[in-house]
From TrEMBL, chain A:
One Gene Ontology cellular component annotation held by this UniProt entry: plasma membrane
Chief subcellular location: membrane
Organism of provenance: Allorhizobium borbori
TM helices/strands, residue ranges: 6-31, 67-86, 98-118, 144-162, 196-221, 241-261, 268-286
GO MF, one example: transmembrane transporter activity
Protein name, entry field: Branched-chain amino acid transport system permease protein
Domain of life, per lineage: Bacteria
Cited InterPro entries: ABC_transp_permease, BCAA_transport_permease
Family: Belongs to the binding-protein-dependent transport system permease family. LivHM subfamily.
Length: 294, 237
C-alpha cells in the first residue's frame, strides 16, 4: 500500500513538475532573449487556457481550434506587451527593477481581466484523451502521457532552435550584447519581440496542458510563475534542461510532502527545500557548466 | 568610400562632436588620433548608428546613411570594431563568426572562414571555445574577423591595439595593410601616435570634438617632429 502511495506521489510529482518546467522554460526563453524576469508568465498561461475554455464552452468551437486560439492570444498579448511597454522602457534605459514592476503589475491586470470575464470558478478543458494506465501501482492518465511527450518535444525543439538555427543564435546574441549584435547586422528590437512571442506561446502551452487536470482559474498565475521561476533558477536560468530538472525536483518535493507531511504545507516544504538547494548550489543543480544552455 | 560632413552629436546638452568633416577613399588607411575624451568613440558610435547624429550627414559608397538603423548598416558595406570588442561572450568563436557570415551573405564575398583562419591562425584554433574564455588579443582578432565576414568596403576600428602585446598589434596591422591594398577603406582610431604614424597614410587629429589638424599624405614625419603640435593636441611627447 505505501509503495503504491509512493508510486502515485511520484507520478503526480513528475506530472506537475513538467508543468512547472514548461512555465520555467518559457521564463528562461524570455530571460535569454531580453535579460528580463517575466513576472506575468503564469498569467499568460492563464490567459491562454482561459481563452481556450471560452472558445470551447461559450463559442462551442472544437477543442483543437480553441487550443490554437489560446496559444495565439497569449502570443499576441506577450508580443504587444513588448512592443507597447517593454520597448518604451528600453528606449529610456530603464533599469531591471522597472521591468520587474511592469510585469508584476501586468500580471495583476491580466488576472483581474480573467476574473471579470470568467468569474471565480475553475474551468476544465476536455482532456486530450481518456485512457487510464497503471504503472507500478500508480494510476496514470492519458493527459500525463501527453504532457511528458509535449514537454520532451519542446525541450528538444528549443535546444535545436538555439543551437542550430541562425534565428535562435541571433536571439541570444541580441540579449548578450545588444551593441555587438546591432553592428553585426542583427535587429535587436525585433529579436526581443520574437523572444516575447515565443515566451507567450510557451506559457500558453503550459496552461493548456494543465487545464484538463486541475482547471484554470483567475488566481492561478502567481503560483505558476513562482514555481516555474523556481524551476528555472534551480536549473541555472538559461539552460532548458536545467528547468526540466528543477521543475521535476519541485513537483516531487511537493507531492512527497503531501504524502509524508501535510498537504497544507506542500508549498512551504517545497519552496524551503529550494532555498536550501540554492544556498548549497548557487549556480543551479547542473552547476556552472549548465548555465550556458542553448 | 566614407564621407562625413559637418557631423554633430552628443549625449547631453552640449554636443560632443562639433561639426566633423572626414573623407576616406577606397584603399586608404586613415588614422584618427586624439587624447582621452576627444570624442573618438562618440564618433564611432554615431557611425555605427548606436548614437543618433544631431546634424550633418554620413555617406557610405554614395548612399546617405545618416538615419539608417545600426543593424542595416553592414548591408551598405560598413563594419565596425567597437572599443570594447563586444563579442557574444557566452557563444563560441564559430557561432560569433556564423552570425556575421549570415549578415554579410548578400554582399560580394571577399572573406570566408578559411581565409580568416589563414589571416589569424589563432582564431582557427579556438573555433569551439566560448569567446569570454579567450585572451584579449584573441578576442580582438575574433572581433576583427567578425567585422570582415560582414564583407565590408569600409572598416572602422576603435583602438584595436589597446591592451595588446606589441607582437600581436604588429600582426593585426600587417593584416589590415594587406586588406587596404585590396581596395578596402580603413579608419584606424589610435591614441598611440607611434602606431598610427607607422601604418596610416594620413590622419585626422580630433580634440574636444573638432578636427583641429590634418596630417596629409606623407606628412607624418613633419607632424611628429613638431613637439608643439603633438603636445597641444595629444598631450604626449
Ligand atoms: N554615455 C555617455 N554619456 C555622457 N557623456 C559621455 C558618454 N560617453 C562619453 N561621454 C563624454 O563624451 C566625451 C568624449 O568621449 P569619448 O568616449 O568619445 O572619448 P574618446 O576619444 O573615445 O576617449 P578614449 O581615448 O578615452 O577612448 C567625454 O567627455 C565623455 O565624458
Ligand atoms: Mg574611446
Amino acid at each position: 500500500m505505501s509503495m503504491m502511495l509512493l508510486a502515485q506521489a511520484c507520478a503526480t510529482g513528475i506530472t506537475n513538475g513538467l508543468i512547472y518546467a514548461l512555465v520555467g522554460l518559457g521564463m528562461a526563453v524570455i530571460f535569454k532573449g531580453s535579460r528580463l524576469i517575466n513576472a506575468m508568465h503564469g498569467e499568460l498561461a492563464v490567459v491562454g487556457a482561459a481563452t481556450a475554455v471560452y472558445c470551447v464552452e461559450i463559442a462551442m468551437w472544437p477543442t483543437w481550434l480553441a487550443v490554437t486560439m489560446g496559444m495565439l492570444i497569449a502570443m499576441v498579448l506577450s508580443t504587444l506587451v513588448d512592443i507597447g511597454l517593454v520597448r518604451r522602457l528600453f528606449n529610456r534605459n530603464a533599469r531591471e527593477e522597472s521591468f520587474l514592476l511592469l510585469t508584476v503589475g501586468l500580471g495583476f491586470t491580466f488576472s483581474a481581466a480573467v476574473l471579470y470575464v470568467f468569474g471565480r470558478e475553475e474551468h476544465l478543458l476536455p482532456a486530450f484523451g481518456d485512457e487510464i494506465y497503471e504503472v507500478a501501482g500508480a494510476i496514470i492518465r492519458e493527459q500525463t502521457i501527453w504532457i511528458v511527450g509535449i514537454a520532451a518535444f519542446i525541450l528538444i525543439g528549443l535546444k535545436l532552435f538555439y543551437k542550430y538555427t541562425d534565428f535562435g543564435l541571433a536571439m541570444m546574441a541580441a540579449s548578450i550584447d545588444p551593441d555587438g549584435a546591432a553592428t553585426t547586422g542583427i535587429n535587436v528590437r525585433l529579436m526581443r519581440t520574437a523572444t516575447f512571442a515565443l515566451g507567450g506561446l510557451m506559457a500558453a502551452v503550459a496552461g493548456l496542458l494543465v487545464t484538463p487536470m486541475i482547471g484554470v482559474s483567475y488566481q492561478m498565475g502567481p503560483i505558476l510563475t513562482l514555481k516555474g521561476f523556481a524551476a528555472a533558477v534551480l536549473g541555472g536560468l538559461t539552460n532548458p534542461l536545467g528547468a526540466l530538472v528543477g521543475g521535476i525536483t519541485i513537483g516531487l518535493l511537493e507531492s512527497l510532502s503531501i504524502v509524508y507531511i501535510s498537504s497544507g504545507l506542500k508549498d512551504a516544504v517545497a519552496l524551503s527545500v529550494l532555498i536550501v538547494i540554492m544556498i548549497l548550489v548557487p549556480d543551479g543543480i547542473l552547476g556552472r557548466s549548465g548555465r550556458k544552455g542553448g | 568610400m566614407l564621407t562625413v560632413s559637418n557631423l554633430t552629436a552628443g549625449y547631453g546638452v552640449p554636443n560632443i562632436l562639433q561639426g566633423l568633416d572626414i573623407t576616406v577613399r577606397p584603399g586608404e588607411m586613415v588614422g584618427l588620433v586624439g587624447a582621452n575624451g576627444a570624442g573618438k568613440t562618440t564618433l564611432v558610435r554615431v557611425l555605427a548608428g548606436l548614437l543618433p547624429a544631431r546634424g550633418g550627414s554620413i555617406t557610405i559608397n554614395g548612399s546617405d546613411t545618416t538615419n539608417v538603423p545600426a543593424h542595416a548598416r553592414p548591408k551598405l558595406g560598413l563594419a565596425i570594431v567597437l572599443e570594447n570588442r563586444n563579442l557574444f561572450g557566452e557563444l563560441t568563436v564559430a557561432e560569433n563568426l556564423r552570425l556575421a557570415e549570415r549578415a554579410g551573405a548578400n554582399r560580394p564575398k571577399k572573406f570566408d572562414i578559411p581565409r580568416i583562419v589563414e589571416m589569424f591562425p589563432a582564431v582557427g584554433e579556438k573555433m569551439a571555445v566560448r569567446c569570454d574564455l579567450l585572451s584579449g588579443g584573441q578576442q580582438q582578432m575574433v572581433a576583427i574577423a567578425r567585422a570582415l565576414l560582414l564583407q565590408p568596403d569600409v572598416v572602422i576600428m576603435d583602438e584595436p591595439s589597446t591592451g595588446l602585446a606589441p607582437k600581436v598589434v604588429k600582426a593585426i596591422l600587417e593584416v589590415l595593410r594587406g586588406l587596404c591594398s585590396e581596395g578596402m577603406s580603413i579608419v584606424l582610431i589610435e591614441q598611440n601616435i607611434g602606431i598610427a604614424s607607422s601604418v596610416t597614410q594620413r590622419a585626422y587629429v580630433l580634440s574636444t570634438g573638432r578636427i583641429v589638424h590634418h596630417v596629409a599624405d606623407g606628412g607624418w614625419p613633419a607632424f611628429l617632429h613638431d613637439p608643439h603640435l603633438v603636445s597641444r593636441y595629444l598631450g604626449q611627447h
